[in-house]
Design goal:
Elements lengths: L6 H33 L2 H27 L9 E2 L3 H12 L4 E6 L3 E3 L2 E12 L2 H12 L5 E11 L8 E13 L10 E2 L6
Parallel strand pairs: 1-6, 3-7
Antiparallel strand pairs: 2-4, 3-4, 4-6, 5-6
C-alpha cells in the first residue's frame, strides 16, 4: 500500500520528530551536563576551601600555644605515691572530653624526684574544648610536663562539628621524702624525650 502523506501528516511527523529529538537532547545532553555543572560549582568549592583554611589556621594556633608553653610547668610537687590524687585530678579534667583513655607506666626515681609517665588519648567535640583540656592539664594542681602532643581533626562536613582526637604523654613529678618509700622503684633513664 503506497499512500502519499498529506501536508497535515508531514507536519505531524515533523512535530513528533522534533519532540523525540528534544527529549533525546534533554536526557542525553542537558540533564547530565546540568548535574555535572552543579557538582563542580565554584562557589561550593570556595566555601569548602575557606572552611578548610580556617580549620588549618585553628590547628596552627593550637600548635603554637602548645609550643610556646612547652617545658613550662606549674603546680605542686608532693610526696611520693600521689597516684590516687593524680587520678582524681585527671578524671576531673578529662571529664570534659567526649571519651578518654589513660595508660600508666611504672614510676621511676631520679635522685630525689619520682617521675610517673602517663599516656593519655581523648576526643573532644571541637578545637576549643581540646585546647581547654590541654590547658587544664598544663595548669593542673600537681606539677607535670606535657610532651608529644598530637592532634587530629576529623572532618565530617559543614553540617557536623569536627571531632578532635588528641594523644599526649604527661609526666607527673613527686618528691622523695623517705628513701625507704621508693625502694624497688626503677631508676629513671633518659631516652631522649
Amino acid at each position: 500500500m503506497n499512500r502519499k502523506l498529506t501536508f497535515k501528516n508531514n507536519i505531524a511527523l515533523l512535530v513528533v520528530a522534533f519532540l523525540l529529538l528534544g527529549a533525546l537532547y534533554y536526557f542525553a545532553v542537558w540533564k547530565p551536563t546540568s548535574e555535572t555543572i552543579k557538582n563542580y560549582d565554584v562557589l561550593l568549592l570556595e566555601d569548602q576551601l575557606i572552611t578548610a583554611q580556617a580549620k588549618a589556621q585553628r590547628m596552627l594556633q593550637m600548635e603554637k600555644v602548645i609550643k610556646d608553653n612547652e617545658g613550662k610547668t606549674t603546680g605542686l610537687i608532693v610526696g611520693y605515691n600521689n597516684l590516687q590524687n593524680e587520678i582524681v585530678e585527671l578524671n576531673r579534667i578529662l571529664g570534659n572530653a567526649d571519651t578518654y583513655q589513660i595508660d600508666f607506666e611504672d614510676a621511676t626515681v631520679d635522685g630525689s624526684i619520682v617521675r610517673r609517665d602517663i599516656r593519655i588519648s581523648f576526643q573532644a567535640s571541637n578545637y576549643e574544648s581540646a585546647k581547654d583540656i590541654l590547658q587544664a592539664l598544663r595548669d593542673g594542681k600537681y606539677k607535670c610536663l606535657l610532651r608529644n602532643v598530637q592532634m587530629t581533626a576529623a572532618n565530617h562536613g559543614l553540617e557536623k562539628t569536627d571531632r578532635i582526637s588528641v594523644s599526649l604523654e604527661v609526666t607527673f613529678y613527686e618528691n622523695v621524702v623517705d628513701s625507704k618509700a621508693v625502694e624497688g622503684l626503677q631508676e629513671y633513664v633518659d631516652i631522649g624525650n
